[in-house]
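Priority: medium. Attachment 1 of 2:
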């Protein structure tokens, strides 16, 4: 009789531990779904140590921070001017999109910050390589300066249908 009680007690304890574990996992999932906010940090991306997240996923909408044309392995701006920086910025953003299960087809809006509108045509030529048709909405703003002497910074919002 004692061994039956021990087995029964062990079984009940196991069930209770299972229920408790499930409750903790569900509580964490509910907390995340209530906040609806998940930080996206791709493995292949620059890590500047600055206080911002590369992307924030809220529901099915991804808010992508402004990205300069930084080499992911050195964190330095790539050489080659606005064309090279635009390509690298787009490559870095692609990694954020991929980490969130998205791609450029999911991008709905882009904000481009460039240091000089004299480079606008060069910027657009590279931009068209990524968005050849059905382009997202976009604003392009000339700014006095960008961090580290960059020529371009791109910020995007993407929505997964």
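Attachment 2 of 2:
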């Amino acid at each position: 009789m004692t061994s039956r009680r021990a087995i029964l007690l062990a079984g009940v304890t196991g069930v209770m531990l299972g229920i408790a574990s499930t409750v903790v996992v569900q509580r964490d999932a509910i907390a995340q779904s209530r906040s609806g906010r998940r930080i996206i940090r791709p493995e292949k991306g620059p890590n500047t140590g600055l206080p911002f997240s590369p992307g924030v996923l809220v529901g099915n909408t991804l808010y992508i921070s402004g990205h300069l044309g930084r080499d992911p392995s050195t964190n330095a701006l790539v050489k080659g001017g606005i064309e090279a920086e635009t390509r690298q910025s787009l490559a870095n953003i692609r990694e954020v999109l991929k980490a969130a299960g998205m791609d450029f087809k999911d991008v709905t809006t882009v904000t481009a910050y460039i240091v000089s509108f004299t480079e606008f045509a060069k910027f657009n030529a590279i931009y068209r390589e990524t968005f050849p048709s059905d382009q997202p909405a976009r604003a392009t703003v000339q700014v006095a300066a960008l961090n580290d002497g960059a020529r371009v910074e791109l910020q995007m919002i993407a929505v997964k249908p």
